[in-house]
């Protein structure tokens, strides 16, 4: 028997698998990420500080419970928090200007009078004194400017940030030694004159 030659079976070439269709959403996400990396994000719009607004914020700090006896750093942090809540920079008012505005409000002046030439003279004298007695001097200056009765010991103590009346009274002697006030004890009470400005309490 003649056997027919067995035909060799040639396997059909396998089709190369096609790559999956591109994920369009992934491509869009990648494109967006590239654009964000190339283009800086727009800066948030800064809120300009209005002087009247700053005055109101500091006045709120002054009106806070127990603020007369809190350290300056604590009061400044309170102000910074209020400023951030209003969308302002926490450094919208530096510590020095904050302290001057704080002392001016405590002395009893309003925003308009605080810009007067007379008060700027008083602030210039206060700037030559240690920070802890500036509030006492400005309180005396304001009452002398308005011709009012000299502040009592309790008012001086609040301006100095102490509960000690004796300690507050000693600041009067210190201010007289610094030659920024003249202190007079009269039968009608204590009187204070501001050196160089000609103001005197009643």
TrEMBL record:
GO MF terms held by the record: ATP binding
Region annotation Disordered: where it falls in the sequence: 1-25
Top-level lineage group: Bacteria
Keywords, in A-Z order: ATP-binding, Nucleotide-binding
Protein name: ATP-binding protein
